[in-house]
Amino acid sequence: PSFRDGFLSEANLGSIAALNEIAAARGQSLAQMAIAWVLRGGRVTSALIGASRPEQVTDCVAALKNPEFSAEELAAIDKHAVDGGINIWAASAER
Fold first, then answer.
1. Running DSSP on this structure, what letter comes out for residue 69?
2. How far apart are CA 52 and CA 87, in angstroms?
3. pLDDT for res 11
4. 72 lies in which domain range?
5. Structural domains of the chain, count
6. DSSP reduced 3-state for 55
7. DSSP string for 73-91
8. Looking at residues 82-86, what average pLDDT do you find?
9. How far apart are CA 15 and CA 86, in angstroms?
């Protein structure tokens, strides 16, 4: 199966839509929320962003304006990103 078949299922697209709603409620893009999520807790000290244009760097740095998550936000993110089957860490460990 292709990447598209494995990750772009109807269920995963629904999870992406829900994650976009959480990000919008936080005043962030999904990419900004993802960066803030990666950097939360202090175990990860940097996030590779892969920006190719200056405005992408500016957008990614804006994630630092709202780095804190409520318990409710984390639970909702986990519901869609981990429990929803998009747990990239588990997929990576299985390879």
1. -
2. 26
3. 78
4. 3-94
5. 1
6. helix
7. HHHHHHHHHTTTS--HHHH
8. 59
9. 8
